[in-house]
Amino acid sequence: MKESFDLAIQELKRVDHLFWVSLKYTRTVDVIKHVIDRLISCIGYGLEALLKYAKEKKLIASVPENAGLRCELLRKTFPENLEMMDYINFYLRLRRLSKAEYSRREEFRRHVTMIAVIDKGEVVEVSIDTLKEDYEKTRGFMQFVKKIIYEEKEES
């Protein structure tokens, strides 16, 4: 559980560098795509930490390898936690965005944008500003995971 959380923290540090340094100087859709992939990886490790926590508490029998199954298992294990449902939906949306066909607009400029088509033609535009919101939401997710894993442990 702690290892997965530490891996998530390491991924968040990589996202931090990509966002504040690489994206600032290159402003390309490739960097935006890398940031999205790192956010997915970070959240994935966080979800794994939550599942290992649930396994320690004997709420589940095993931790599946498949990301979709992990999300479903978390939904079944913590159905009353609306904040977790929101983060799981956010994670699944990022995964769809990462796999989608995309085009580029205004590369090498402040308003560089990745335009992706997901889910039955829904067009999503990812700019530096929307990416910052996703980054902040991921930081919030890490605080959420930390609160569940470590503060629950102290009560025992």
Structure commentary:
This protein has 156 residues and is mainly alpha-helical. Helices cover 71% and strands 11% of the residues. It has one domain (2-99, 129-155). It contains 5 helices and 3 strands. The chain has a 3-stranded antiparallel sheet. Helix 3 (67-77) runs antiparallel to helix 4. It is globular and about 50 Å long. 30% of the residues are buried.
Concise description?
With 156 residues, the protein is mostly helical. Helices cover 71% and strands 11% of the residues.
Helix and strand arrangement:
Elements: H1 2-26, H2 29-56, H3 67-77, H4 82-99, E1 101-105, E2 113-118, E3 122-127, H5 128-155
Antiparallel strand pairs: 1-2, 2-3
Query: What structural class do you assign from the helix and strand content?
Result: mainly alpha
The radius of gyration over CA amounts to 16 Å
Main beta sheet strand tally, sense and closure: 3 strands, antiparallel
Oligomeric grouping of the chains: single chain
N→C terminal distance: 16 Å
The number of domains: 1
Uncertain stretches of 5 or more adjacent residues: none
The shape is globular
Strand tally is 3
Strand content: 5-15%
Question: Characteristics of this structure?
Answer:
mainly alpha; three-stranded antiparallel beta sheet; 5 helices; globular
